[in-house]
Design goal:
Elements lengths: L6 H7 L4 H6 L1 H8 L11 E5 L6 H12 L6 E4 L12 E7 L5 H13 L2 E6 L2 H10 L3 E3 L10 H11 L6 H24 L6 H9 L3 E7 L4 H15 L4 E5 L13 H4 L2 E7 L5 H16 L3 E6 L5 H22 L8 H12 L1
Parallel strand pairs: 1-2, 1-3, 3-4, 4-5, 6-7, 6-8, 8-9
The structure holds 5-phosphoarabinonic acid (PA5).
Length: 347
């Protein structure tokens, strides 16, 4: 199996240089923090996007909820806007490529409904339609795999709402998050496996299906992000679920001894998890271990919400990258996603 400390082997497998993009993520966040539009008053927010372009909406949703923001945020992953989206809804249409048909469909519906629309994209048809219709456009750099553009796909959403939040506090949180990421980048990129939690997690997942559990409204969006990063970077199946809901169904799957060795469980916790959630995480770990399950835990670092959210997310990016290395697969290309998009167009 690959030696994760062997830089020559890593660069042989990481042919498209995802490591450089991961290492540069803090810089991307600084650049993305400069991008925003002014938004009018609204009653709710809908973020429309798919895959790597939707996760920024999830992060916005949990961040705002944790800050007590009084208006709801909906993340729409699909072709249809829900009926409640109307002229009092702030709609962010987010597509890294600008050519994702589900997002374009929502964009057109939001236009017809008179929503306050903002397009966030690196180009494509979405940029073109925004220009044609005079829709505010946040342009982000081209040429990245969407999932490595999380800074560009999240911060402009948050920054655009900055005036509705405590701007000074938000700026402070951002600076802390940035410093935290800058501190983690060399650890995840360069530390040897014995000291590198990202390499250790990848090693634990290798040969198994990673199962990632998050806490409702806290780390659930990060659990989803980890799952999708494992799928796309390592070309591996993965699964995610959320506490407390999973205690009402998923937990029964832990009883199947014949399948147990095929899964590796990772619990995503947060320092500020409320006591009831903490108890449920503790019990999950206990019950899984009693049944011989392989369990790891991970937690974000930093004082404030934003730092903890992004640092935990960043660990998943790196762990999925190292899992790709262990499977000796280039993390960047996603040929099956592209083939499916091509076949959809042809049909
Ligand atoms: O990571 C990926 O490549 C995908 O998950 C894409 O983000 C997804 O297919 C949507 O495409 P786009 O981000 O260009 O709208």
């Amino acid at each position: 199996m690959m030696d994760l400390d062997d830089l020559a082997c890593i660069s042989q497998v990481d042919r498209s240089d995802m490591k450089v993009l991961l290492r540069g993520f803090p810089r991307q966040c600084s650049q993305a923090w400069e991008l925003f539009v002014d938004v009018p008053s609204f009653e709710q927010i809908a973020v429309c996007g798919m895959g790597g372009s939707a996760i920024g909406g999830d992060y916005l949703k949990i961040y705002l909820a944790q800050k007590g923001f009084p208006k709801p945020v909906f993340v729409i992953r699909g072709y249809e806007l829900p009926p409640f989206v109307g002229d009092k809804t702030l709609v962010f249409a987010v597509s890294y490529s600008g050519n994702t048909e589900e997002t374009l469909s929502c964009f057109e519906q939001a236009l017809r409904r008179g929503s306050f629309l903002v397009a966030l994209t690196s180009g494509g048809r979405l940029a073109q339609r925004a220009h044609e219709k005079g829709v505010p456009l946040i342009s982000i750099p081209q040429g990245l795999p969407p999932r490595t553009a999380l800074g560009y796909l999240f911060f402009p959403l948050l920054k655009s709402l900055g005036k509705l939040l405590n701007e000074e506090a938000l700026e402070g949180e951002f600076q802390e998050a940035l410093e935290t990421l800058k501190g983690l980048a060399p650890l995840y990129a360069e530390a040897p496996e014995a000291e590198n939690p990202a390499k250790q997690l990848a090693r634990a997942w290798y040969g198994r299906i990673p199962v990632i559990y998050g806490g409702e409204g806290r780390t659930d969006a990060v659990a989803r992000r980890w799952k999708t990063q494992i799928n796309e970077n390592a070309k591996s199946p993965a699964h995610w679920d959320v506490l407390p809901e999973l205690h009402h169904n998923e937990i029964m799957g832990w009883e199947r001894p014949e399948l147990r060795e095929h899964f590796a469980y990772t619990l995503l916790r947060d320092r500020d998890d409320p006591p009831k959630l903490r108890r449920r995480f503790d019990l999950s770990r206990e019950i899984l271990k009693e049944r011989g399950g392989l369990v790891w835990e991970a937690q974000g670092t930093g004082e404030k919400t934003l730092a903890r959210l992004l640092s935990l997310s960043y660990l998943g990016d790196w762990s999925s990258f190292y899992l790709a290395m262990l499977y000796e697969v280039d993390p960047t290309p996603v040929p099956l996603i592209e083939e499916l998009k091509r076949r959809l167009k042809g049909s």
